[in-house]
Amino acid sequence: MRTAMLRSIKSSSSSTLLRRSYSSESAPERKVAILGAAGGIGQPLSLLMKLNPLVSSLSLYDIAGTPGVAADVSHINTRSEVVGYMGDENLGKALEGADVVIIPAGVPRKPGMTRDDLFNINAGIVKGLCTAIAKYCPHALVNMISNPVNSTVPIASEVFKKAGTYDEKRLFGVTTLDVVRAKTFYAGKAKVPVSGVNVPVVGGHAGVTILPLFSQATPQANNLSSEEIVALTKRTQDGGTEVVEAKAGKGSATLSMAYAGAIFADACLKGLNGVPDVVECSFVQSNVTELPFFASKVRLGKNGVEEVLGLGSLSDYEKQGLEALLPELKSSIEKGIKFANQN
């Protein structure tokens, strides 16, 4: 029985893979560059992007360790050609012709560190990488994973403005992990299959700036008490800390972050390829609030952001959360802009 079951699983999954690779023959050529590809997020993200049939060229860059990661990933029998680039002198080659650039570079959060403790190290790294993007692939869609995203996205925007290449439609803070967590935690509490769940998450990408809109979750679960909604909100906001503590000094959320990064990059590629109605939450330049950047649902298309969607109707609890997050998000954005212009 078990053997027959395994055989059927194997044949159905291989036929799915065959269908996927077959359909990719007609997909346009797309180059994806991952900056920080040898790191904790970068390695699983490189693997997941190698599995994506929309990618024809996968460029892996880091300051060390990239030849090994590239050699390893390159043996996988999927569409994309893989090249590894190591060291500052090869960054330009890694970026040239990229359609999408994903940036997980930087140091991870350790126990007791806030995302702001990461700021000085990661802000400098992001600034250097974005200077190179402006020079070598100014029209690429940039997916920023490096924390603190609430500050690194504004830094990137200032670097691009200085270089004369800034296009607000092409710069994204990847907040998909907040959405992934909200979906998982909500499905568990509401006892609904997670595959059909959607939960918009707005605001920013740290602590209280993360605001899951459970009132807009689908399918709507009327069995959740207001206490449970508060607990779900808090768990979504503290999801990163939950993993940092569980790893006990050995790192932060790398695997789930790589998954979320791959989901968002896939959405960007679909948008570029003209797939209609691709909507994901992302931290982008926005008029949704008085702040210059804000995460909300975004429709993706051939130029990146097609439309920044509004917040929709909020519950009273969510309205309070929105008011509470604005000052902290404002100060993180300003901190990024100040860093970019001072240094």
From TrEMBL:
Location of the Lactate/malate dehydrogenase C-terminal domain:
175-339
SUPFAM superfamilies per the UniProt record, alphabetical: LDH C-terminal domain-like (SSF56327), NAD(P)-binding Rossmann-fold domains (SSF51735)
Organism, scientific name: Ambrosia artemisiifolia
Q: Which family does it belong to?
A: Belongs to the LDH/MDH superfamily. MDH type 1 family.
Gene3D superfamilies from the entry? Lactate dehydrogenase/glycoside hydrolase, family 4, C-terminal, NAD(P)-binding Rossmann-like Domain
User: Which residues make up the binding site for substrate?
Assistant: R109, R115, N147, R181
Protein name listed in UniProt: Malate dehydrogenase
Write down the top EC class of this protein. Answer: oxidoreductase
Gene Ontology BP terms: malate metabolic process; tricarboxylic acid cycle
Active site at H205 (proton acceptor)
Query: How does the record describe its quaternary structure?
Result: Homodimer.
NCBIfam families noted in UniProt = MDH_euk_gproteo
Q: What's the EC number here?
A: 1.1.1.37
| Residues binding NAD(+), per UniProt | G36, A37, A38, G39, G40, I41, G42, D62, N122, I145, S146, N147, M257
Q: Which residues form the Lactate/malate dehydrogenase N-terminal domain?
A: 31-173
Report any Pfam family annotated for this entry: Ldh_1_N
